[in-house]
Automatic annotation (TrEMBL), chain A:
Extracellular compartment segments: 29-145
Entry function: Heme chaperone required for the biogenesis of c-type cytochromes. Transiently binds heme delivered by CcmC and transfers the heme to apo-cytochromes in a process facilitated by CcmF and CcmH.
SUPFAM superfamilies registered for this protein in UniProt: Heme chaperone CcmE (SSF82093)
Phylogenetic placement of the source organism: Bacteria, Pseudomonadati, Pseudomonadota, Alphaproteobacteria, Sphingomonadales
Gene that encodes it: ccmE
Protein name per the record: Cytochrome c-type biogenesis protein CcmE
InterPro entries according to UniProt: CcmE, CcmE-like_sf, NA-bd_OB-fold
PANTHER family (alphabetical): CYTOCHROME C-TYPE BIOGENESIS PROTEIN CCME HOMOLOG, MITOCHONDRIAL (PTHR34128)
Automatic annotation (TrEMBL), chain B:
Statement: the UniProt record of this protein carries the keyword Disulfide bond: yes
Classification via Pfam families: Redoxin
Domain of life: Bacteria
Subcellular location: Cell envelope
Primary location recorded for the protein, binned into one broad class: other
Thioredoxin domain sequence ranges: 39-180
Sequence similarity: Belongs to the thioredoxin family. DsbE subfamily.
Protein name: DsbE family thiol:disulfide interchange protein
Automatic annotation (TrEMBL), chain C:
Summary of the function given for this chain in its UniProt record: Required for the biogenesis of c-type cytochromes. Possible subunit of a heme lyase.
Topology term for the membrane: Multi-pass membrane protein
Protein name in UniProt: Heme lyase CcmF/NrfE family subunit
Keyword match Aminoacyl-tRNA synthetase: no
Family, per entry: Belongs to the CcmF/CycK/Ccl1/NrfE/CcsA family.
Keyword annotations of the record: Cell inner membrane, Cell membrane, Cytochrome c-type biogenesis, Lyase, Membrane, Transmembrane, Transmembrane helix
One Pfam match: CcmF_C
Organism (species): Sphingomonas abietis
Annotated localization: Cell inner membrane
Residues of the Cytochrome c-type biogenesis protein CcmF C-terminal domain: 315-626
TM region(s), chain numbering: 6-30, 42-62, 96-113, 122-142, 177-197, 209-229, 249-266, 273-292, 312-331, 352-374, 394-412, 424-441, 447-465, 477-497, 604-624
Chain segments annotated as coiled-coil in the UniProt record: none
Thylakoid is among the record's keywords: no
Molecular-function annotations in GO: lyase activity
């Protein structure tokens, strides 16, 4: 390395590395960021099956059913317009119940049929309603597939 | 050339920082919430009939809304701190002539009334929504939320979270809009 | 009265901070022994006043003074004493006050003890410190007053978030804050040095203890936070790539880079501009950490917590401090003369690669964390989680570890590739052997855990290489520090790889009396019964785990129900054995008299936090080694410290 320009060379290397990092990040974000849908968004936009997404809505009253294995639940997520059937295997967060808001991470296995890997209910360090959202997540992850 | 290149490179960190700053500022100005927006805006109020929280009063029903008068529906709970925070703003709205119907969500009537004794009672009527049936039907996923219902019983506006002093103008404007 | 005393103390402290900034700038402009002598008592008075304010807050929390709004929001008379005190910093306002208190104490320490810097640079540093403190005082006083009263004194407070009711909380935030504040001191040093164009070894030596200390506390804070989340949340994970976690990781990455570049500057007088830049970046990242996340801009899940005025205030502070420092950098750094040069193959070269890789990881984490903000500005909501971070940051972190293994055996200024190759031959062979063993023993391993295990073996060996053929008693303490810290990285990496490769999980609904298997354990669900705690009731399961002929272990996971505020938390029960942890959680009842049980066997998971602790201990050793004055002098003269 020519000593005369060492500073410039180092600066350029740093620049290249950081631009490289940004490009890597952007390309990875393209297929690894999961989009947030409400049930009506999801049905309207025809979300690709198997793609990682988040589904947000309210657990429909009377829709929560437990499978005989005791750890799998079926429920419906609604936004008042459209409804999506969802299935989850695992221990649900304490704040999860019928009629409460829910954000589920997972994928559609068929149109209108969602399988959740993770269920998020939310809470806050401030005192918030038992069923509701705030900062910080309260989640429970499902079995690794 | 090399010297000038260096000089330009030196300002790159500042430029990158300003971009991030602009992004964050945009995020701050646009109230970006992951809250679930109601899909009921522009639709008629769902049919409901809730017993009154105040003893001895008639139930709060959806039928009573389509009488040509613009009303606010405010969903609250005695267990909810932001609900207490927005009470002064609700009083201001009431003094500006707004009619506010309260919906006590997942609450015991005794607790609701105690809460109103402490923080003031801006409500015209209060429905006891202990099962949060109306709350879900109207598309609300949290407390407090406030809705503007026009004279035909159509839902015109949803305000998520507590009403701050800066929100009063918006809500009064929405009420004027709803009056046509 | 106590609350008012606190508030008044805070105002006085703010005035002292302003005075400190003015005095510092005056010395910078005109010089002057007398003025300089006046700066010290001002900095001390500021620290005393801030500490008084913080003491007042602790006192109102300890007494559960329900006329103070913060106490009403975040405490209750029924809380156990420990949480009545820690509740003081378990909320936005209180934690800000704690931040400022640590900042003021650090500022006083700089003013009192710093002797290495030229007077004008020290004055500029102290002025910068005063300006930073002033901004935070303004933030506290104008938009986050912790001493605000309520008009109606309620009979009881709203209680403290049960998830935060843990001894971990007493320890975790203060540790991180000490780290952040240490970086703010490094930032002030950098600004001071830019103002006087005095970027050299003396500046680096003055800054280094602060960077080392900050880095050590950040390491401890992150390690403790990770373990806390692991056992308290009951999800079995130890890192979630949550924005809150990233907010503490990013300053750590920058501080790690800074720690290494400041060594180059102190020892070899190289990397001047880069070191200054990193000092600015490290503090910027801790600002992002403390404030953006707290303000709710980044994590907002529901719009409650965000007070737009507060967010705007933070943004203005960020713009002023970081923008100002970067503008100063752009304007000044070209006039700072270039430091010593070095060959690409040299210790410096390896440290440059280390710095570049750390910066790349930092950029990836920052972009991933901010990306949801960006898309939201475009109108789409996304979340960025582990799939992104693991796939991008993971491989680069492994390369970084490989460089870390080679760096310490390289010579300063110039080295030969062949010679370096010989020195790391044994670790390199170890990597290959470990790869082969892992492939033979567990063929289906994923690539990242596989490489992680192999690299951990090689790095563990390479990290002790600097001690090779050396008189261990004569080896300076800071070399020991480096060895221990690098060894800690290998230990932690081994734990992470093992956890992600070999964890076994069982999720069932079982009746009392039934047997469940997980990993090497047979677990009997012995009983489930209600128990009462100080401020909660709980349903507690009794599990008896047996493995071979070893003494059975009894675990008691529980579901706690708090009533003020009404919330449930699950309390995991964990049994630690030399070769791993058995992690158990009890869920809800299921019709038929069954209960959900979730069990994990996590081989060698404890190495993650053991490694983190070793890294911090390494930092502590270096810090002690660097700050013993007699020995530092000897080291600077001969290149090695003499054993006393």
């Amino acid at each position: 390395m020519k000593a005369k320009n060492q500073r410039l060379v180092l600066a350029l290397i740093a620049l290249v590395a950081l631009v490289g990092a940004a490009l890597l990040a952007m390309s990875a974000l393209k297929d690894r960021a999961s989009y947030f849908y409400s049930p009506s968004d999801a049905l309207r936009d025809h979300v690709a099956l198997g793609q990682a997404v988040r589904l947000g809505g309210v657990v429909e009253k009377g829709s929560l059913r437990r499978e005989t294995d005791g750890v799998t639940i079926d429920f419906r997520v609604t936004d008042g317009i459209a409804t999506v059937a969802a299935r989850y295997t695992g221990i649900v967060p304490d704040l999860f119940r019928e009629g409460s808001g829910v954000v589920a991470e997972g994928r559609f296995t068929a149109p209108g049929q969602f399988v959740a890997d993770t269920i998020l209910a939310k809470h806050d360090e401030n005192y918030k309603p038992p069923e509701l959202a705030g900062n910080g997540m309260h989640q429970s992850a499902s079995l690794k597939k | 050339m090399s010297l000038r290149t260096i000089r330009i490179l030196l300002w790159l960190p500042l430029a990158a920082f300003l971009i991030v700053l602009a992004l964050v500022a945009a995020g701050l100005i646009r109230p970006h919430d992951n809250s679930v927006r109601s899909q009921m805006i522009g639709k008629p109020l769902p049919a409901f009939s809730l017993p009154s929280t105040r003893p001895g009063q008639p139930p709060l029903t959806s039928a009573s809304f389509a009488d040509g008068k613009v009303r606010l529906i405010n969903i609250f709970g005695s267990w909810c701190i932001p609900c207490a925070e927005e009470m002064p703003q609700l009083q201001t709205l009431k003094q500006s002539g707004a009619v506010i119907e309260g919906i006590a969500s997942r609450d015991r009537p005794a607790d609701s009334l105690g809460f109103l004794r402490r923080y003031g009672d801006p409500y015209d009527r209060i429905g006891d929504d202990s099962q949060s049936a109306l709350q879900i039907a109207i598309g609300s996923s949290g407390v407090p939320e406030t809705y503007v219902i026009d004279g035909k019983g159509l839902i015109r506006l949803q305000h998520i979270g507590p009403i701050g002093p800066q929100d009063i103008g918006d809500i009064l404007a929405a009420i004027r809009d709803a009056q046509g | 009265m106590i609350a008012e005393t606190g508030l008044i103390a805070l105002w006085i402290a703010a005035a002292f901070a302003a005075l400190q900034a003015c005095l510092g700038l005056a010395v910078l402009k005109a010089g002057g022994e007398d003025l300089m002598r006046a700066v010290r008592p001002v900095a001390i008075a500021q620290a005393v006043m801030t500490a008084t304010a913080f003491g007042a807050l602790l006192l109102v929390f300890y007494r559960t003074d329900l006329s103070v709004k913060l106490v009403v929001d975040d405490s209750a008379t029924t809380l156990p004493t420990l949480y009545r005190i820690t509740g003081a910093w378990g909320n936005h306002e209180g934690s800000m006050l704690m931040w400022v208190t640590i900042l003021a104490l650090a500022g006083a320490a700089v003013a009192l003890f710093e002797r290495r810097l030229p007077e004008r640079t020290l004055a500029a540093t102290i002025a910068a410190q005063g300006v930073i403190a002033l901004g935070f005082f303004a933030f506290l006083l104008f938009s986050s007053n912790p001493f605000a009263r309520v008009y109606d004194v309620p009979a009881e407070g709203n209680g403290f978030n049960p998830l935060l009711q843990d001894p971990g909380l007493a320890f975790h935030p203060p540790t991180l804050y000490v780290g952040y504040v240490g970086l703010s001191v490094a930032f002030s040093f950098a600004v001071g040095a830019l103002l006087t164009r005095d970027v050299g070894p003396a500046f680096a030596r003055a800054m280094r203890p602060w960077v080392l200390g900050a880095w050590m506390f950040l390491t401890l804070g992150i390690t403790a936070g990770s373990y806390w989340a692991y056992y308290e949340l009951g999800w079995g994970g130890w890192w979630f790539w949550d924005p809150t976690e990233n907010a503490s990781l990013m300053p750590w990455l920058a501080a790690t880079a800074l720690l290494h570049s400041v060594t180059v500057l102190a020892t070899r007088d190289g990397l001047r501009a880069w070191t200054v830049m990193l000092a600015v970046v490290a503090f910027s990242m801790s600002m992002v950490g403390t404030f953006l996340v707290r303000s709710g801009v980044l994590t907002s899940v529901h719009a409650f917590a965000l007070d737009p005025r507060r967010g705007a205030f933070i943004l203005v502070l960020l713009a002023l401090y970081i923008g100002g420092a970067l503008a100063l950098f752009g304007a000044r750094i070209a006039t700072v003369s270039e430091g010593n040069r070095f060959e690409p193959v040299s210790r410096e070269g390896a440290l440059v690669v280390n710095n570049l890789l750390l910066s790349v990881i930092l950029a990836i984490v920052l972009i991933g964390t901010l990306y949801p903000l960006f898309t939201e500005a475009m109108g789409t909501k996304v979340s960025v989680g582990p799939p992104y971070f693991n796939a991008t940051a993971g491989p680069i972190a492994l390369i970084l570890v490989a460089v870390m293994a080679a760096g310490p055996v390289m010579r300063w200024r110039r080295d030969q590739i062949v010679a370096v190759g010989k020195r790391i031959a044994i670790p390199a062979v170890l990597v290959i052997v470990a790869l082969a063993v892992a492939l033979w023993w567990a063929p289906g391993l994923h690539i990242l855990p596989l490489l992680g295990l192999a690299l951990a073996a090689g790095t563990a060996a390479a990290s002790v290489a600097p001690l090779w053929k050396r008189n261990l008693r004569r080896t300076p303490l800071f070399t020991w520090g480096m060895v221990v810290a690098h060894f800690g990285v290998a230990v932690s990496l081994a734990g992470m790889a093992s956890e992600s490769a070999f964890t076994q999980e069982t999720l069932v609904a079982a009746r009392p009396g039934e047997m469940v298997r997980v990993g090497p354990y047979a677990v009997r669900f012995a009983a489930i019964e209600p128990v009462a705690g100080e401020n909660y009731t709980a349903v507690q399961a009794t599990l008896v785990a047996t493995r071979g002929t070893a003494t059975p272990i009894t675990l008691r996971p529980a579901q706690r129900t708090f009533d003020n505020p009404p919330q449930q938390t699950s309390e995991s029960a964990i049994a630690t054995r030399p070769d791993g942890q058995l992690y158990t959680v009890v869920g809800e009842p299921v019709p038929g008299g069954r209960w959900q049980l979730r069990l994990w066997w996590k081989p060698f998971v404890t190495l993650i936090w053991l490694g983190g602790t070793l890294i911090a201990i390494g930092g502590a050793l270096s810090l002690i080694g660097r700050s013993l004055p007699r020995r530092r002098k000897a080291e600077e003269q001969s290149g090695f410290a003499r054993f006393r």
